[in-house]
Structure to design on (94 residues):
């Protein structure tokens, strides 16, 4: 299942998608928790009783602003959260 966290407004669509099937098979115990410099991720138990990563509620309405430090114009060549996610479960829509 793909879980989408984020929003759409007049300036675009800003979503972080997490493939929960890939997330449950994380070989490094959810490295995304420490990979994100802002600490945007948390571990939850989803509706199917799987332990997966999710974007914290406090960040879901401000992703464009909160992720801007890590986007390529912020000096990174790849995003820390997607690099830390070894199964490749995290994707950004913008």
């Amino acid at each position: 299942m793909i879980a989408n966290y984020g929003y759409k407004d007049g300036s675009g669509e800003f979503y972080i998608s997490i493939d929960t099937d890939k997330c449950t098979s994380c070989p490094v115990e959810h490295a995304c928790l420490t990979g994100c410099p802002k600490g945007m991720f948390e571990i939850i138990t989803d509706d199917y009783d799987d332990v997966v990563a999710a974007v914290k509620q406090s960040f879901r309405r401000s992703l464009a602003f909160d992720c801007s430090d890590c986007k390529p114009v912020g000096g990174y060549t790849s995003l820390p959260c997607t690099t830390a996610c070894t199964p490749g479960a995290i994707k950004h829509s913008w």
Remarks:
- Helices lie at 20-23, 32-35, 63-66, 80-84.
- The first strand starts at residue 2 and ends at 9.
